[in-house]
Predict the structure.
Amino acid sequence: MLIRRQFVLTLALMPITFGIWYAADALFAGPAVWLCDLLLSSLYPDIVQGAGLQGANMLLTTQFGETNGQILPAREAGNQIALEINTRLVSYSVAFYAALLTASNLQESITKFCIGLFWLTGIMAFGLASIAGKDLLLMVGTPFLSAPGVPPADLLAVTYQFNVLLMPTLAPICIWLWQLRGSPLWQTLEADIKRASAQR
Amino acid sequence: MTRFLFIFCTVLGSLFAIEMLKPVQEAVIQPFTGFLAALSTALILPFDDTVIAQGRILRDAATGFAVSIEAGCNGVEAAIVLIAGILAFPASLRHKLVAILAGFFFVQALNVVRIISLFYLGQWNYTVFEWFHLYLWPVLIMLDVLIVFAIYLQWLGKHHTQPEPDSC
């Protein structure tokens, strides 16, 4: 009964949490963009100059430029390639997580939400970095792949698949389950798990 | 719990890596994605005869609007998460196989609903289409995975508590 209530309430709360998330624009993605900027510009200074927020998008300025369809270092080209990345592609995890958490009616839910948001920010930063990697692979190609420290194309593809297509929905569930421990819903789940594992 | 997490993460990572291999993409993922497009078309056709499937593309012959089913839209990633969860949880091989087959069916059934709904939402309003495509449907599919897994746990528990039938 508690589990059914949880799923029904999550679905009912989703329009509200997604509405707040959309209205908040880049508020939830801001720290992730900052973290992504820190990560990429310190790990790959020859590729990324910096990243910042522009509305709900992350504007990533690269060290590459383009002249007559040819990709060159920015200094030689006299211009810089910049990527616009939609931060909502990863930040919707916050809206999903908020719906899951609110539906559970846990004690100290505000503190739990802040802790969850902290973890999600890190995961969002990796998601944004993965989108940047995929976009650079498609836009810049060989000059990007041959730069020092850049992983092979296959690894970039797997990373994108994992961090962008999977983590925004899987991470909120994992964090929520972790925070659920000790609650009446967790006790119901635990009883189900005990009964289920006893049948082996 | 630690054992569950270890197996879950290992199976998840392995299946993801296998899914991305070129031979697997060519022999399994792409034909399966094409099958999803064909199945969606077959379900729509009795109600709307303007829809046609071209490989992974679903097209409306009247308006010219088309949706292409790409990686991440074929429900394979969600199915992988469910399979990893089922394999990581201690149960008999028979129960695991039944759960994987039934779970895969339920995830894909909702995924076909997603494809069809996106096909019509895109023709109606592109902003709404983007919202559902990028943000809402991925969450609903993952919620479906969670529900299927919760039902699986309850089913396993009930299986255990049911008394054995008397033998004659």
In short: Chain A has eight helices and five strands. Residues 109-139 of chain A form the longest helix (31 residues).
